[in-house]
Amino acid sequence: MSKLLPLFRGAVEAWECDQMRHMNVQFYMTKASDAFAQLQNRLGLSPAVIRSTHKGLRFRNIRTQYKAEVHVGTPLYGLGGVREVKDNLITGFIHIFNSVNDRLSAIYEFTADYADFETDTSLPLPDEVRSAAEVLADPHPDSFQLKPFAGALMPARPLDHMFESARGSVDVWECDQFDHIEMRHIVGYFSDAATHIINSVGLTREVIRKRNLGSAALDYYSEFHAPIRKSTAIVLKSGLIGADGKIFRFGHNLIDMDTGKLAVTTTVLGCYFDMTERKSVPLPEEFTNYPKEKLLGAQL
């Protein structure tokens, strides 16, 4: 019997697409979050159980890779499963497909633990959750599995030459029932930071439009260190780690300004593409000419 689970079905809405004319990364995350809720339900953590106990699974880290862009109106479906249960951690995956051609569009590989959402503390997996996860656990050799993230990763500490790329506070409508920021809005901060990163290397949106260029995220790796709650003031610090050929790499530190704690670290790989041909192109010279002494990679 297959242990691959149906976890999502939906479509790309017009308001989920950005100026690149494809679905924005934050809305991929929305669909993956919906799929994660379905997976929790299969493990016995139904919405009713989570509401009554104030406990459930939360992400400790997520690896995301975008394989093929999707556009407004594209129907989507999601499959996923559990790869491993080790100690008190569950490793799993979610794959988002284009329903028209069954093409894999995005991959989420994650590690999750069981937590008290009121105290934000990690807890041992309940026996019934562990048992359900162990029944579903399978290496899934027939499902695409990502290779380890290659190259420098953003460390959980500040680095020289990082700059402010986003600042705000967490609104009520950005939060779940336990007043934690939803994953979509964390990714949204990273997406909004892209324009500031472009400006940091000496480019503007006007120049990019004249060159008929678009940009796309290819690969994310995020680690979650501390929760972010409703009304929290946050600041995002970012910096270019490196740029070579067609690929740029930058890092983010999302900081809780109320406590000073580093909440999320993320490493992003991306590229530029021709907006007409929808094919990747060499990086603009502004990236490759960026002062080497300002690259975060020199500190890693």
UniProtKB/TrEMBL annotation:
Domain of life: Bacteria
InterPro entries on file: 4-hydroxybenzoyl-CoA_TE, HotDog_dom_sf
Keywords from the named record: Hydrolase
The keyword Transferase belongs to this UniProt entry's keyword annotation: no
GO-annotated molecular function: fatty acyl-CoA hydrolase activity
Family assignment from sequence similarity: Belongs to the 4-hydroxybenzoyl-CoA thioesterase family.
Protein name, UniProt field: Thioesterase
Source species of the chain: Sneathiella litorea
